[in-house]
Structures are given as structure tokens and as C-alpha cells.
Design brief:
three-stranded antiparallel sheet
Amino acid sequence: MTVLITAGGTVESIDRVRGITNFATGRLGSLLADRFALAGHRVLYVHGRQAALPQTPGIEAHAISSVRSLQEKLRALCNENTVDWVLHSMAVSDYAVEYVTDAQGNILTGEKISSAHEKLLVHLRQTPKVIAEIQQIAPQAKLIGFKLRSGVTRDELLAAAQTLLQSNRCTYVLANLLEETDADRHHAWLVEEGGVLAEYQTKAEIAEGIVQLCQTFCSA
């Protein structure tokens, strides 16, 4: 199998030296990449620049920065390769910088905005939903989406995962709560259409379970 995994977070530039990002580490994505590679599969690993990197030799790593660069990289890889599975675990920025103004409303430009300004106003625009494009650029691939929520109940989380699955034609969605995710614990549910297929407690369990599931799916 050829497996494409996205991991980490994107960065949207304010100027050439500053940006807006998120706290995604890419640890789960890198672990998934290692497990697939160790099982003998080809892995294309698309990652944010601060993301954890897999350690298994032979994994093809591709660094991206912004949402636009992610879109371009995914299109290129899916045009050049027949991808069997896409695991889209990357935390993609919901907003990009439209422009920046000072307190008086003057638009600021330049490679580095001066730090002499007491206040800056950063105007944002919504970014495209990358997951919605995956089945268009890789129609033969099976897609696993990832849904992270905070401050909701389990039932609300699972309902959101079902919505993500159906609206983006995912085969599965891995759903988890921020409050139940840290360095040692990663409580998650693997959702298929109509219900929960599996429940996991750690990143290692998730990686092993998803690799086995994808292999079984493709051999069925």
C-alpha cells in the first residue's frame, strides 16, 4: 500500500518573520508513519515544519508551511502517486492573514513589520477546508479524517465525527477530546458510518489499530 499521512500544524505568515500557528505536535502522525513503514508499506509524510518526524528509513517526508502550500503539495503527490490511504491528522489553520493595520487603520507591509507599533490589528480570512478536497484529488484513496473537540460530551464529539465522515466521504474518522489527550494518554474513538468501530487509550494503540484495520480492509 501507499499511505499518505499529514501531521503537525500549518503556519500563516503575518510577515516574513512572524506567523500564526497552533500547538499540534505531529506525534501521532509520526507514529502512524513509523508503524506503516515497519509493516512494509510506502509512506508519504506531509508535515508542518515543527512537527515530529518519523524515524523509520525510507519514509518520504515533505515539509509544508501554509494551507496553500499544503494544498499544492497534496495535489502534486496525488498526481504523481497512486495513493491507497490518506490519513489527514494535520491541524490545518482555520484562518489566514488578510492584512495587518496599525491602530489608526493604516495597512502595514514589508518583510518585517516594525515592533515600534504599540498595537497591531491582524485581519483574518477563512481558509479552505483541505479535507473536502482530498477525495477530488485522490478519488481512489480511502480517507481517515481526525476530529478534535474540547468542552463537549462524548456523544457530541461522536456526532461531530459522523458529520465530518459523511460530508467528506471519509471511510473512518478518529475522534478525540483535547481534555483526554496528553503526552501519555490519547483516548480516542474510531468512527465508521453509523457508529463506533474501536476505542483506544494511547497513541501506540491508535497506530497499531489503524495499521491493522487498513491492511485488513485492503486484503478483504
